[in-house]
Structure formats: C-alpha cells, structure tokens
C-alpha cells in the first residue's frame, strides 16, 4: 500500500478517536478534538499532494479519499448538531448536497464521463474543515465572541456548500439528460 493510501486510512482511523475524545468529555477535550480534527484534515491535503507528485494515484485513493473526507466532516457536524451548536437543517442541507453530487457523478460515470472535483468543492471542503475546527474551540473563546463565531462558521459552511452544489449541477447539467 502506498503512502497516500496509508494517509487516507490514517484519516479514517482518526474518526473514532475524535468521537471517543468528544464523548469522553475530559477537561480540555475540545482542544484535543480540534487538534485531532486538524491533523486528520491536513492528511487530506497531504495524501493528495503525495499521490499527485509521486504518481501514487490509485482507484482505492480516488474512492476512499473523498469518502474519508465526508465521514470526518459528518462526524464533526453530527456532534455539533447533537450539542445544539449547529442546527440540524444545516447538517441536512450539507448531507443532501453530498448525496446529490455523488448521484450526479454516478450518473456521469454510467455514461462514460468522469466529473472531476471542482474548485468550489475544494473550497467548500477547506472552509468546512476550518470552520468546524473553530466550532471545537468556540466554547473556549470570550463569551462576547461565542454567538458571532458560531453563526459565522455555520453560515460559511452553508454558503460554500450550497454554492458548490449549484455549481456542480450547472456545469454538468448535460449529464441529467433524461431522454431515453
């Protein structure tokens, strides 16, 4: 197994560690969770960089890398939803966007076409990871910043998610040709 794929599997392995830290609830667990989330998030960039520069792009990586990203982000979002930090409807919109874009890609593949990751999708992922990291430590910020920081982070996640979802469908509307 190559280095890029090992990093992807490391990211997947960090997800249950993140959840144990969050549910364990020890002092400063939010900082530890933020650190775990940042390390796992950075492996997304690192494994992609290694795969491209060392010629380690594999079918496993093409499948597992985006899946690992989604599971990591959704683990955090579901935690924040459960803690009533992120509204459930925001989490649902993000989930719906992911399913819709995945369905669009599957339809395209069935027609012999591959839809590459769009720049807006990469921005969405980066913004989500940065904002979720902020949400891990928002409770440690001075009280006057709690609400502002929380809603700014949630709003940025929502806006970039909706924008990138719309962009995928506009740029690839021809994939949805429903004529038989």
Mean of pLDDT: 91
Query: What is the domain total for the residues?
Result: 1
Largest sheet: none
Using the alpha-carbon principal axes, give the shape. Answer: globular
> What structural category do the secondary elements indicate?
mainly alpha
CATH H-level homologous superfamily name: CDP-alcohol phosphotransferase transmembrane (TM) domain
Query: What is CATH's topology name?
Result: Four Helix Bundle (Hemerythrin (Met), subunit A)
The CATH class: Mainly Alpha
- What is the level-2 CATH architecture name? Up-down Bundle
Distance between the termini: 42 Å
- Summarize the helix and strand pattern as letters: HHHHHH
Query: What is the rounded Rg?
Result: 17 Å
Query: Beta-strand percentage?
Result: under 5%
Helix content bin: over 70%
If helices are DSSP runs of H or I spanning 4 or more residues, what is the number of helices? 6
Number of strands: 0
List the uncertain runs.
Answer: none
Please tell me about this protein's structure.
This protein is mainly alpha-helical and 180 residues long. It has helices at 3-24, 29-53, 59-82, 88-110, 119-137, 143-171. The chain has one domain: Four Helix Bundle (Hemerythrin (Met), subunit A). Helices cover 79% and strands 0% of the residues. Helix 1 (3-24) runs antiparallel to helix 2, helix 3 packs parallel to helix 5 and helix 5 (119-137) packs antiparallel against helix 6. The radius of gyration is 17 Å and the shape is globular.
């Amino acid at each position: 197994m190559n280095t890029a794929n090992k990093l992807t599997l490391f990211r997947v392995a960090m997800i249950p560690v993140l959840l144990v830290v969050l549910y364990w609830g020890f002092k400063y667990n939010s900082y530890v969770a933020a650190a775990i989330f940042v390390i796992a998030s950075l492996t997304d960039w690192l494994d992609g960089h290694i795969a491209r520069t060392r010629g380690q792009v594999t079918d496993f990586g093409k499948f597992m890398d985006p899946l690992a990203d989604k599971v990591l982000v959704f683990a955090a979002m579901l935690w924040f939803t459960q803690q009533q930090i992120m509204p459930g409807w925001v989490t649902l919109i993000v989930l719906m966007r992911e399913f819709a874009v995945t369905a669009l890609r599957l339809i395209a593949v069935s027609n012999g076409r591959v839809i590459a990751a769009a720049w807006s999708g990469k921005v969405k992922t980066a913004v989500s990871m940065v904002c979720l990291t902020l949400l891990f430590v928002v409770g440690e910020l001075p009280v006057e910043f709690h609400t502002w920081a929380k809603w700014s982070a949630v709003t940025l996640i929502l806006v970039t998610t909706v924008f990138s979802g719309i962009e995928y469908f506009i740029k690839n509307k021809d994939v949805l040709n429903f004529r038989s």
